[in-house]
Amino acid sequence: MDSLFSDKFFYHIYPLGLCGCPRRNDFSCPAGTSFEKLAGELDRIKSLGVNAILIGPVFESSSHGYDTVDYFHVDRRLGNNESFKKFCDSCHEKGLSVLLDAVFNHTGRDFFAFKDLIQNGRDSKYRDWYCNINFNGRSCFGDSFDYNGWAGCMDLVKLNGENPEVQEHLVSAVKNWIDLFGIDGLRLDAADVLSPSFMDRLSSETKKYKKDFWLFGEVVHGDYNGWAKSGRLDSVTNYQIYKSLWSALNTKNFFELSYNLNREFGADGMYRNIQLFNFVDNHDVNRIASTLDDCNLLHLIYALMFCIPGLPSIYYGSEWGIRGKRGDCDDYQLRPALPPFADRIPDFASPDVDSNALVETIKRFADTRAKNPALQLGDYRELFVSNLQFAFERSYKNQHTRVFVNLDSRPAKIKINGHPEVEVPAKWIVIE
User: Fold this and answer.
1) How many Å apart are CA 98 and CA 184, to the nearest integer?
2) Is the peptide bond before 425 cis (omega within 30 degrees of 0)?
3) Whole-prediction pTM value?
4) For 157-174, b where at least 16 C-beta lie within 10 A, e where not — what string?
5) Cα–Cα distances in Å, from 249 out to 16, 168, 280, 326, 388?
6) How far apart are CA 243 and CA 291, in angstroms?
7) For 242, what's the count of Cα atoms within 13 Å in the CB-facing half-sphere?
8) How far apart (Å, rounded) are the C-alpha atoms in residues 319 and 363?
9) Looking at residue 331, what is its pLDDT?
10) Residue 23 to residue 17: CA distance in whole angstroms
11) Which side of the chain, N or C, has fewer Cβ within a 10 Å radius?
12) Cβ–Cβ < 8 Å for 184, 212
């Protein structure tokens, strides 16, 4: 399971939300100071054990960042290219890799190519930049043509990723990001519907440009091997394990997690040679403190995430146990503004969460993983499973690390053949 990024622990930032930027871009405001504020948080973030920052979207957009207007300029609500370069430089000086959220499946309606299409219709030289342009119909915005939007969202206009001109524009933008900001990789938004030929070209050209460049994709459903493979992407988001983690704790049933870990990483596991991207929440799903029925299990779910196969990540603010649920029509509650001063942020946490203790748990298990090659690279083997107890082994070369998990509200003893009985405290983990 050797991987270029096997030692990484990610901190995921949605900057437009975290920094309290206006929800709409007026395209005339002066450059914001968000990156200077974020730079002031880097030491605190690094103290968690983090060594990689996932940030974005950061490029000019009309509203939430996923309706891109310009791939070559930073969103003015956040700052400008110069201030973002300084932020990236600060990250690198502190030993933090920088990965951007790259939105290549669609653009906003204010993107230059789509505006040209609105103005010139059939005569637009960009009519083939987008999917299924239909001049026999009208869009819901009253355009003289209809088109495809991502997941039915017509303000997110589906790009034709097979078009060589589109591919060239996007690949050129990424090379510009490497040159200007020195970024280390990308998260490909909506990778499950991106053009395979575009992803292959992006992989080939970026790795020639920067040999250790790392690509992972947002994939919710399907066989991850279709994306995470040689010549395409290095990794994808592991939504299957995300769901299994919190569901197992809520239902007090480790068999679901056991089944999916065996399916993915056991002796015949589908993904045993891939370092998948693990998370317990992100900018698209409810905060884990709002998902778990018992917030006392926050410590346990984070500890588990650092011990199972894959790359762990923390979504900003969740290290304090803040809550947030998706709205009926938007995700703003998942992407709140937080004050830039760490000693005030615990005030945003759930009242039944000891924020400082949760931070210490994350630090502890991040450090354990960082010092343990088996937890980073090791094979996975289940040792024991019941509704409330679970044990597994991670093995790498001559190192064997066993993890014992107890979901019960009382201490439990777990016996593995050939090994002494292990007593595990209530709602906790023992590693040996």
Assistant:
1) 5
2) no
3) 0.97
4) bbbbbebeebbebbbebb
5) 32, 46, 12, 21, 9
6) 10
7) 25
8) 10
9) 87
10) 9
11) C
12) yes
Q: Please list, residue by residue across 179-208, b when 16 or more beta carbons sit within 10 angstroms of its beta carbon and e when fewer do.
A: eebebbbbbbbbbbebbeebbebbbebbee
| Sheet of 10-13, strand order | 235-236, 214-217, 185-188, 97-102, 52-55, 10-13, 313-315
Nearest residue to 240 via CA among 277, 215, 203, 272: 277
DSSP 34: H
> Exposed, middle or buried, 363 (CB in 10 Å: 0-12/13-18/19+)?
middle
147 secondary structure, DSSP code: -
- The token duo for 53 is 């920052």
Cβ proximity of 198 and 189 under 8 Å: no
Top pLDDT among 347 and 272 is at 272
CA distance 19 to 22: 9
Residue 237 main-chain phi, psi, to 5 deg: -70, 135
Assign 4 a pLDDT band (cuts: 50, 70, 90). confident
Residues 11-70 pLDDT 10s: 999 999 999 999 999 999 999 999 999 999 999 999 999 999 999 999 999 999 999 999
Under a CB-based contact definition with an 8 Å cutoff, are residues 86 and 112 in contact?
Answer: no
For residue 278, what are its two tokens?
């693990």
| pLDDT bracket for residue 339 (50, 70, 90) | confident
Distance CA 156, CA 251 (A): 37
Give the residues across from 186 on adjacent strands: 100, 215
